[in-house]
Amino acid sequence: MVPAFSSKHPQPDLMAAPSHSPVPDLTSVLRTLSAYSPGVQDQSRIHNPPVESSNSNSYTRPTSTSRHAPLEQHTLELNQPPNLPDPSTITTWPAALKYVMKTVAQNEATQSKIKRLIRTQHDHERQWWEGRQALLSKQAGREAKKRQIDEVLRSVGGFVAKDSDGPTPQDDKIELCTYDKKVYKALTTMSKSLNAELRALGIPFFTIRDELVDSSCDQVSESHSSDLLKPGELKALRLQMLQLLEDLCKD
Predict the structure, then answer these.
(1) 226 beta partners
(2) 11-to-125, 127, 136, 139, 184 alpha-carbon distances in Å
(3) pTM to 2 decimals?
(4) What is the rounded CA–CA span in Å between residue 22 and residue 155?
(5) Nearest CA among 7, 5, 46, 6 for reference residue 129
(6) Digit-coded pLDDT (tens) for 100-154
(7) How far apart are CA 250 and CA 180, in angstroms?
(8) Which of 70, 132, 204, 242 has the lowest CB atom count within 10 Å?
């Protein structure tokens, strides 16, 4: 699975409390975020999370095209092959597949933009993962140094306090959890940016009109919205589309 596109790096449990439970990967989290994140937003309103640059886990947004989304979508409609539907009205996989194969698959410029999105995502995943590994190494080094000092003190008959100065294992867990939460915030920002980029490119299911998605929760309205996509269905279609785009745009 991918955070939008397939991940090349093992990923940490972003919001895990200090425990030894199995950890989900960033891939699963971002794919979920991507599927549920809102529609196009003005990217000037999406701010980078306060992630320390020393850990190389900040997210720098790719050059966004969402401010000009209406213009770009209009351009796509003008240049797309005839007899193709407006991508914002597509609600089924066969229609979406046909549309993408006649547009994205035959448009090198669009493929180049999608490849850039994939590379950007993988770059940030690598930075976040390496930053996490560096933090773990630093914590392990602190513990090893502390044990070495304690051994020296014992060898000369010095006093070794049970609760000597320095971070405790619990402190290390809190520090790691804080790092993961910052990565989670950066992922949320990246997911919103990705959604906006794909919408601006006119990708089916990412540019879908709001009125074609059933956002109601009451059962009474279900009989009147049988032709609308349920949020769960839209999520699944978006994930399927992301996999198709990655397959089409592999280097």
Answers:
(1) none
(2) 8, 11, 13, 18, 11
(3) 0.60
(4) 40
(5) 7
(6) 999 999 999 999 999 999 999 999 999 999 999 999 999 988 877 777 776 777 6
(7) 29
(8) 70
